[in-house]
Amino acid sequence: MKEVYIDAGITQNRALVINDGRVTDLIIENNDNYNITGNIYFGRVENIVPALNAAFINIGTSKNAILDLNECLDNKNIKRGQGILVQVVREGVKEKGPKVTTNISIPGKTVVLLPFEKGIFISNKIEKTSKTEELKKEVKIMLRNEFGVILRTEAFHESTEMIENEIEELRNFWNKIKNNIQFIKPPLMIFNSKDFYSYVLREIIKSDVERIYVNRHDVCEYIKQEISGKKTEKVDKTKSVIYDINIFDKIEKTIMNSLNDKITLTSGGFLVIDETEACVVIDVNSGNYICGSNIDETILKTNIEAIDEIYNAVTLRNYSGIIIIDFINMMDEKHKEKVLEEIKMRFKEDKIKNDIYGFTSLGLLEMSRAKKGQSLAGFIYKKTDRQRLTTAYILKLIENECVKRSKFYNIREFNIEISPETYEEFLSKYQFFIQGMKDNYDINVIVKKSNVVRNYRIASLDTKKDFVKVEFEDKRIFGEIIDFSFNSDADEIIFKIKSNNKLTKTLDL
């Protein structure tokens, strides 16, 4: 069974995909700093450098974007100061700005619209059969020879009615973009491909998802409406959208487990992962598994088993750049070829472009992976200190903890203490957090600076009040203790607890 967990937050949103008990996807986006790959901007040409055969485009980011004129659809007529519609194909790295193209593509759930192309293309992940050719003929009629499209995997799980409706939506959206840029001044973002909820609905909630858990009522209703509005006879997931405030811990545990430096294999072997500035190194170890008469076969089996865990680690942590894998040493060249074949097959499933180059003379496997957004660790830890958490992540943890305490103990006001460094960033970027807590949960928070706190500390404002969670057999009560007595003769404890703004009956335990 495939399930999606959506943890909507004020400073950070997260989504988790679990398929038959195994984590297959983990998406995190900060609300102040998101991945801009795929975004469409109406930019302004700031400079043209013939020696580089490139133009520098102001799209409103800190660094001007780079447009390769060889990839520009109208490179002969491009002029300094003009407005130009571009799409980000690669994020900026260090001192380099993002790379952009004028060859726009607009993603949908079943198709990708190509406004400047003609023809129907098939995703590389789809096996070409008579069914694909039949669908291409039907889609060709829908396009009216106006655009091109890429048929995505999901197109083969949806009705032609759903595909036609989406093509019409994308057509209208593109026409709206063309009309709007006539009246706006660049630079301006036109399309945010990573809008969190749109992205989850388009890329994560596929036809094979059976249940969707959401932590907030408003987001739960939004997801229901979006799915209900696009359901077809083949797909009806509306009933599977479930409000559940208790998903915080599940996602938090998954994040922490995904960042472990050591991953244990079923066989008893293990991986050790080291992320450095230059590259990511993954070391495969046999542990106590190397035994038996045929050691070479045992080593091969362990290395092949490790490939699944390597794939999960690389994709869940969103590693990019150079990745070096030190498999257990194999003497047989055929075994090396087998491992190379297996890892290439596994990484064909990766949504992000990667290249696997093979084994070096030292027996290390080299591969690289394109950069697309931050790594998982980048959302959680400060770059300079793995003991210190990022401000967005700290505020997300505070949000979750305050919501849980408010629900269980009926507390509506909290004192928050954070480190001086975090407090400075809070003042400059995240003051909206206070109003967000009030608007979304009716919770008041007071944020203070503390020199003795490394990350954060939470306390209720009224420290004289005592709160308790009592569970006994089928009875459970959370709230403020109004009265308490102990009868030693009867071996009895009596609580009077105020829960949900109502005085409960006396609970005898």
In short:
The protein has 509 residues and is an alpha+beta fold. The protein has 11 helices and 31 strands.
Structure keywords:
single chain, about 500 residues, alpha+beta, OB fold (Dihydrolipoamide Acetyltransferase, E2P), 11 helices, about 30% helix, disordered C terminus
Structure description:
This protein is an alpha+beta fold and 509 residues long. The C terminus is likely disordered. The relative contact order is 0.09. The protein has a 6-stranded mixed sheet, with helices on one face. A 5-stranded mixed sheet has the order 3-2-1-14-15, sandwiched between helices. Helix 1 crosses helix 2 and helix 6 packs parallel to helix 7. This is S1 motif domain-containing protein. GO terms for molecular function: hydrolase activity; metal ion binding; RNA binding; RNA nuclease activity. Its cofactor is Mg(2+). InterPro entries: NA-bd_OB-fold, RNA-bd_AU-1/RNase_E/G, RNase_E/G, S1_domain.
